[in-house]
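Re: weekly structure request thread

Next one in the queue (405 aa):
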Amino acid sequence: MLCVPARTGFFTDDQAAIRDGAEHDGFAYRSAPVTPGFTAVRQAGEAVSVMLVLDDGFVAVGDCAAVQYSGVGGRDAVFGAAVGLEMIQEHVVPILTGRELTTFRELAAELDALPAHTAVRYGISQAVLAAVAHGRGLTMAELVRDEYDTGVTLGPVPIFVQCGEDRYLNVDKMILKGADALPHGLINNLAERMGAQGEIFEAYLGWVRDRVLSLRTREDYDPVLHFDTYGTIGLAFDRDTGRMADYLTRLGLVAAPFRLRIEQPLDAGGREAQIEEMAKLRAALRERGSAVELVVDEWCNTMEDIRLFTDAQAADVIHVKTPDLGGINNTIEALLYVRRGGLATYCGGTCNETDRSAEACTHVAMACGADQVLAKPGMGVDEGLMIVGNEMARVTALARARDAR
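Done, posted below.
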């Protein structure tokens, strides 16, 4: 077992400081961080690449990485490679070195019980998934499909692409490349990106709709407009359910003829309150006849969280934020649970991952029949869309060729 420090595809950001109005300094921020563990509001993301050298010489790889906005919303603290390497050496190496590979489900459950950061458990489980799949002569997607009996025919999953802070040129890229869902928008600041009464965001939404209509090269190109608002709608309307519902209903009309998804419209400060307020907001939208879909993110991190949000029907779409769940086996269980609960499944994650973790998540999304998968890592559009889209194409071709035999 070999482990080395690695780079992620983006940065880790202090979400609380940014939402409080942290001052920009080019790509960095001038303000001091407020979330424990951060040394700056924006700092380079760190990862650990795990390599399991099997007895036939094959090297199974997984990458330990955490989300961009660590340390908030019930998540583990910001992840550093040095600490991650120490955890792996102490807890994981003694268990895996010399170990006989059995099934992924068995090994992943054992590793996920270790007292290690979610990022560590995430990366180790990816490597184990790759190792067991290799031993069976299957892709990771085929292995997950078979071990979990998902009943899914492996094929492409709609890809959601995020624009980062380049909210205009990157949207053009997404449209030209035919992204299935766009643009994320990074609406994470009330004063600059939402507006005191939501007017800045409403204008941006209208621009995105018009841009799709203007640039699309075929009439049937019909992307979902999906925006992450980081609780700023709740800030603008004092978390008043009626006012938020009225605003979102109006946004749905602005987005037409495209479907509109709004992620994290409010942040209630805790899991139980978040479930209650999101469920009320969803009900209020339906009372108004609005088809706007709500996506849950913060406070929905663990398997238990996802069960509670799903059982309460507290959203239309559950964002399964892959690194937050620890072992990727939990991502599988979560996607299947949400699907059984009748809600839409979004196999997401973060821009702050790696190419390897993105590929592993692509296999899982396909095997679990997810409704949407995130293009990752990074915020440049092209790279994440290429990594996830190309892996999906390869897996689809391999699976169909094998099924045809």
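The mean pLDDT is 96. The longest strand covers residues 2-13.
Next request, please.
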